[in-house]
Design goal:
heterodimer; A: about 425 residues; Rossmann fold; five-stranded parallel β-sheet; 20 helices; B: about 325 residues; Helicase, Ruva Protein, domain 3; 3 domains
């Protein structure tokens, strides 16, 4: 049982070609027709497209895959990240205007267009309009709500392409494929439950599938452990939102958006915090909040004083978000390692303890001394197979314990030739 | 009985005459055996110098074959509290009369400095109640952690750290007996790495011998591979600012190796002294370790607490390694 860094399956099992993207055939065709005009060196009437539709159906994926397939340089701009004029000028206009010295066409991608809100919204939107007018490259906008009132000017300049929810059938097929690639046993009915719950959202279905995979198989029981969703956004988006949040309110709103319980939220934050907070000071401060949150949680459980959980929720959300002094780095999100290993851990300690009991009596040592003074030498000694076998026999080690020790032993590399 | 596999078991002294390097103590214990009488004893001294071994050799010499019936062995850090110790003494031991011609039984209580002073006060009462037919041999690393009333009721025997020549002589004896080739340099290295702790030294010798001739190189490699001594790499990662590796090591120790959070902290604590950083940095690290050991006790998730601790330590170490 070793820790494997598990890649998020939405990335691991990403389609490589446009044909492999499930569903939305009409939208895909419209998009390709538009892009083909650019690829032939011409400029279409509408220089930009607006791909819109519900989350998790492959909007961003379509643009990314197209860039990959047609060898375009992808310039990604997150609309939520546009805070200053300089930013847009430098990242977007400058890149799209400059005559490329690598002879490679670019594809400009502006994600989360409908997240542009607040006092600066008009300013940012007008900059995006300038971007469309001045760009020599195809521009792709992405939004959940393409008909949001404040987007009307942009809509006029865009080819509108709607993408729809995916059918349960096609999601089930895709999930089954992933299961086969992952060598995971599955129950067709269970996949159907995941697909139905996702309401046409492939990304959330894949994430749920990966989540259930920690139990080793996808059955009805495993699937039902997940809470039925009323999801506003998926795990990724909510964590990302939390990490980038700059005020109390938006940080705390993640509590409503995160689709699983708060203990799971804490695991996700802990797994990803250091990837985004690269300033050691920010990291230490944010971690301190997690540590204190954990203490409040334990106290709440111990004293049955549930009010303490208020502080737990605040500390893991606002506490973490407001601990930063600089903008977090862009990083890839990871699935919590701890979720996968928690179950095995307790068992190992039990097995080991029974052995320590025996050996500590024999050697007149306390158990903790037996652990440090004897037990931890065994994995090294077990590198000698003859000794290992004799020891297992002599001390009547259970298979479980013997395997555990052998596994520890195989993880040691002494870098010497054994005789 | 078939031959012991672990050398620390095989070469444990059986009689007082086998005890290394504690001549004065052995001489006085032999005197007690002659007189067939003894006061309560308190053995104090660093780990691995033979306190428990001496106590066991003593009772063997005193009672002969009958020793198991007359001796109760307890370890203070394993027992759930003074109440269970009291129960065990009362129920299973104090009720029957001693066998043979020695008019008392013996309780060996190891690691007695692990007890709180309240527990020690209770122990003192127990010692008094059964004073007529039970003698105690207490062992501890630090006699100043034993309350004065107990110290005043016992004869305190101080075990000196093993001298280098004795350790090496013993190792050489074992090596010859086991037909293991070992160089003098390797023996020196084993002594240095074990810090005078004979048990550790013997373990190191046996582990190294499993890979052929024992050379300094092999000893170093083996010692480095024995967990959880790999904690050193955690500090090294943090100094480099590689939080991810440090965190991975912690998760591995917790989940793959099944080491508890407070044990990990204890090993980090011991390693702190060996770090190549200014003393004030060490002190700051120790403060953090203490704070987080406390938080682990208060909290519910070891990995959250330990990783949070790493983030704090990284901050300190980065300041000093610049």
């Amino acid at each position: 049982m070793s820790i494997r860094r598990e890649e998020i399956w939405t990335i691991k099992h990403k389609p490589r070609r446009i044909e492999d993207i499930i569903g939305n055939e009409e939208a895909k065709k419209a998009f390709l027709d538009w892009l083909n005009i650019w690829l032939k060196g011409k400029v279409p009437v509408k220089k930009a497209v607006l791909l819109y539709g519900p989350p998790g159906i492959g909007k961003t994926l379509l643009a990314e895959t197209a860039a990959l397939q047609f060898n375009l340089e992808l310039i990604e701009i997150n609309a939520g990240d546009i805070y200053s004029l300089e930013f847009v000028k430098k990242t977007a206009l400058a890149t799209s205007k400059e005559t490329s010295f690598v002879n490679k066409t670019k594809l400009i991608l502006v994600d989360e267009l409908d997240s542009i809100e607040g006092p600066k919204a008009n300013y940012v939107l007008s900059m995006l309009i300038d971007l469309i007018k001045e760009s020599r490259y195809p521009v792709v906008f992405i939004a959940n709500d393409g008909w949001k009132p404040n987007l009307f000017q942009i809509r006029n300049l865009c080819l509108m392409i709607e993408m729809k929810k995916l059918s349960t059938r096609s999601i089930v097929n895709y999930l089954a494929n992933i299961c086969k690639k992952e060598n995971l046993k599955y129950d067709e009915e269970a996949l159907k439950i995941i697909a139905e719950r996702s309401e046409g959202d492939m990304r959330s279905a894949i994430l749920d599938l990966q989540f259930c995979s920690i139990y080793g198989r996808i059955g009805i029981r495993e699937v039902n452990l997940l809470s039925p969703k009323d999801r506003q956004s998926d795990v990724f988006n909510s964590i990302r939102k939390l990490i980038y949040a700059t005020n109390l309110f938006s940080a705390k709103s993640v509590l409503d958006e995160f689709p699983y319980d708060q203990d799971t939220l804490l695991l996700w934050i802990e797994e990803n915090l250091f990837r985004f907070y690269t300033n050691p000071k920010d990291l230490a401060l944010a971690y301190d909040k997690l540590s204190k949150a954990d203490i409040y949680r334990a106290r709440a459980n111990r004293e049955r004083y549930w009010r303490f959980l208020l502080y737990f929720s605040d500390l893991i959300t606002a506490g973490v978000a407001l601990s930063k002094s600089q903008k977090p780095t862009y990083a890839k999100m990871q699935f919590p390692q701890t979720l996968k290993v928690l179950s095995g851990q307790k068992r190992i300690r039990e097995v080991r303890d029974s052995f320590l009991e025996k050996i500590s009596k024999k050697n007149h040592l306390s158990k903790s001394k037996a652990l440090n003074e004897i037990f931890w030498y065994l994995p090294v000694m077990f590198k000698n197979e003859k000794f290992a076998n004799e020891f297992i026999k002599k001390y009547e080690l259970s298979d479980e314990l013997a395997d555990y020790l052998k596994n520890l032993s195989s993880n040691i590399d002494l870098k010497l030739k054994t005789k | 009985m078939s031959e012991e596999l672990l050398w620390i078991e095989k070469y444990r002294p059986k009689r007082l005459d086998d005890i290394v390097n504690q001549e004065d103590i052995v001489r006085s214990l032999k005197k007690l055996i002659e007189e067939k009488n003894m006061p309560h004893l308190l053995f104090t001294g660093p780990p691995g110098v033979g306190k428990t071994a001496t106590a066991l050799a003593f009772v063997r010499d005193l009672y002969g074959e009958e020793w198991r019936n007359n001796v109760l062995e307890l370890n203070a850090s394993d027992e759930r509290g003074i109440d269970t110790i009291r129960e065990k003494i009362r129920e299973r031991f104090a009720k029957t009369l001693p066998l043979g011609d020695i008019p008392f039984k013996i309780v060996i209580l190891d690691e007695s400095d692990a007890m709180t002073s309240e527990a020690q006060t209770a122990l003192r009462r127990i010692m008094e109640i059964y004073a007529k037919n039970i003698r105690f041999i207490l062992t501890c690393n630090y006699s100043n952690r034993i309350i004065e009333p107990i110290q005043s009721r016992t004869v305190v025997l101080r075990f000196s750290p093993l001298e280098k020549e004795h350790v090496i002589k013993r190792l050489l004896f074992i090596a010859q007996n086991e037909k293991v080739k070992v160089s003098n340099e390797a023996l020196e290295v084993i002594y240095d790495l074990s810090g005078g702790d004979l048990r550790r030294a013997i373990n190191l010798l046996q582990s190294s011998s499993l890979f052929g001739e024992v050379t300094p190189e092999i000893v170093y490699k083996v010692a480095g591979a024995v967990k959880p001594r790999e904690v050193r790499s955690i500090f090294e990662s943090l100094m480099k600012g590689d939080f991810e590796s440090a965190r991975n090591s912690i998760l591995k120790m917790l989940f793959n190796d099944g080491i508890s959070g407070s044990e990990i902290i204890y090993h980090l604590y011991r390693e702190t002294y060996r770090l190549n950083v200014p003393d004030e940095c060490k002190l700051q690290l120790i403060e953090i370790l203490g704070e987080y050991e406390y938080r682990i006790l208060e909290g519910s998730s070891e990995e959250i607490q330990l990783n949070s601790m790493l983030a704090r330590m990284q901050l300190i170490l980065r300041n000093y390694s610049k």
